[in-house]
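<instruction>
Derive C-alpha cells from the sequence

<record> Sequence and C-alpha cells follow
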Amino acid sequence: MNIDDLRCIFVAGSGTMGEQIGLQCALSGYEVILYDIAPEALQTAEAQIQAYAAFLVDQKRLTQPEAQAALRRIRYSANPGDAVQADLVSESVPEDPALKAKVFAQLNTICPAHTIFTTNTSTLVPSMFAQATGRPGQFAALHFHTYVWDSNVVDVMPHPGTTSETVELLVAFARRIGQIPILLHKESGQYVFNALLGAWNSAALKLATDGVAAVEDIDRAWMAIMKAPIGPFGVMDIVGLKTVWDITQYWATATGDAQLQANANFVKQYVDQGWTGVKSGRGFYTYPDPAYGRGGFLTEAAG
C-alpha cells in the first residue's frame, strides 16, 4: 500500500486529541470516521470540532467553504463496525494499555487486512500492546501534539516488529496532513517533546504539592523569565487534567514513586470536581478568560 491508497481515517476516541486529529485529517482531504462508544461524547466532539473550525475561519487560516467541506468529510459513529471502511486507524483512548489492547483486538476483527493501525499514546510504547493488534507489522505510534494545526509535529515511533514499509507510509502520511514527522529510532516512553514537557510538568506539580509556591506564582516565574504567554499549569489545562492525571497515576502505580503519587493526588482534587481544564471551563484557571491571559497577571501576587 502507498500513500495514495489512504482515503478513510478511522479515529478511535473522541476526546481532545481525537477531535483534533480528525479535523486535521479532514482539512487535508481525508474522509474521517470519528468513533466513540458513548453517543453523548460524540455530540460534544462534534460541537467542539465545529468550534475549532470556526476559530480557524476567524483567524483567516481557512475560508468558510474550506471549513464546511472539511466538516462534511467527518462522520460521527458509535458503531465499531464502521471500521470496515478504514485504511488507517488512529487510536486516542485513555492511557491504559489493557484498554488499548482491547480496542485494537476488536478492530482487528473488523478492519480490512490492509488497514494500518496507529496509537496516539502519550507515554506508553507500542510494543506493550502490539501483539493484541493482530497485525504488529502494520502498527506503530503516530503521536500528535495539541493543537494539531499549530504544533505541526507528529512522532513516528515503530516497535521492533513494525515493518519498514509501515514506517515509510506513516512518515508520508504525516507530511500529507501538514505535520513535521519526527522519526524515533527506538521506543521511548514520552517521545521527544513529551519527555521534556513531562519533566517540566512534574517539576511544577512538585513545587505545588510540596507547598513551595502557589500555582499562579509558579506559572508567573516561568512566564516572566522565559517571556512565555503561558506557564506549566496553563499548559496542563489545555492538555486536559484528566489526561494529566491518567498519565501521572499510571506511572505512580507502575513505579511506586511517592512524589508521582503526590502529584497525581493533587491533580485528582480538580478532576473529582469536574475541573478538567479548558474544555470544562475550569481547571487550575477558569475559562474562557484565564487569569494568565489578562494584563497585569505577572505583577499580581498570588501569595
In short: The longest helix spans residues 39-58. The CA atoms of residues 26 and 71 lie 7 Å apart.
